[in-house]
Amino acid sequence: MKFTFLGTGTSQGVPVIACNCSVCSSEDPCDKRLRSSFMVETDGLRIVIDCGPDFRQQMLRERVSTIDAILITHDHKDHVGGLDDVRAFNYFNGRPTDVYSTSGVQRSIRREFSYAFHKEPYPGVPEINLRKINNKPFHIGDLQIIPIKALHYGISNFVFGYRIKELTYITDAINIEEPEKKKIRGSEVVIVNALREKKHYSHFNLEEAVALLTELRPRHGFITHISHQMGLHQEVGGKLPQFISLAYDGLSGSL
Fold first, then answer.
1. Tens-digit pLDDT profile for residues 43-58
2. What whole-number distance in Å separates Cα of residue 157 and Cα of residue 40?
3. Is the peptide bond before 15 cis (omega within 30 degrees of 0)?
4. Is the entire prediction scored with pTM above 0.85?
């Protein structure tokens, strides 16, 4: 299995428009963060998790010529805003793109990209196969995907993380209940979000993310969905436990 961090930033990305802070002004490539997205290649499949506004740029950077499926964590714009660009894959691969999400997320996609679902769509619009999932394992081909339900904000706004073999990816979470943690345990690689060092109402902060990874104790933990408020990549990374790394755009690994 190969995995690639397509983007590791928050909804605004880094640098943030009009911001002159030390992170947004940094010349370190690790401090340049597109909106969060992730790619897994295994068993002859290429699967992307989330399809934000930077999807086109990410696909071009990684020279991706085909994808087999997109998994959506939730319906916020920074996670679905790039779905229009699957039409390039439709054209060159000659088939619609399978997009897996909950029924609630499907409603949002139909509303946001209504032109793609007309009975007589305009030629060239994205061809999207919406495939409904819930909090139960499902398969893409012979590959099992295990959803991980996590609280995002309030008392009922949830996101789905995903476990694929020995890798678990979770973003935009503020709490994970024990039954869902059990699904994660035993993963060799666990990726979780951390917005900044200061506590936040809808995302793990750095301390919370480190505590979760320390509890789960994978062979390697990564932190993603990072804002400019986190601080410089090199400085923050130097303070982390040895088995935890701040992810950066383009970082890849294998299992």
1. 999 999 999 999 999 9
2. 26
3. yes
4. yes
User: What's the rounded Cα separation, in Å, for the pair 237 and 103?
Assistant: 38
| Residue 133 per-residue DSSP state | -
What are the tokens at 158? 């949830």
Residue 29 tokens read as 């490539």
Write down the domain spans for the chain: 2-246
pLDDT band at 154 (very low <50, low <70, confident <90, very high): confident
Per-residue tokens: 198: 């200061």
Give pLDDT tens digits for 103-137.
999 999 999 999 999 988 888 999 999 999 999 99
- The CA distances from residue 207 to 11, 214, 221, 236, in Å, are 21, 10, 14, 12
The two structure tokens encoding residue 26: 């940094």
Specify the fold of 2-246: Metallo-beta-lactamase; Chain A (3.60.15)
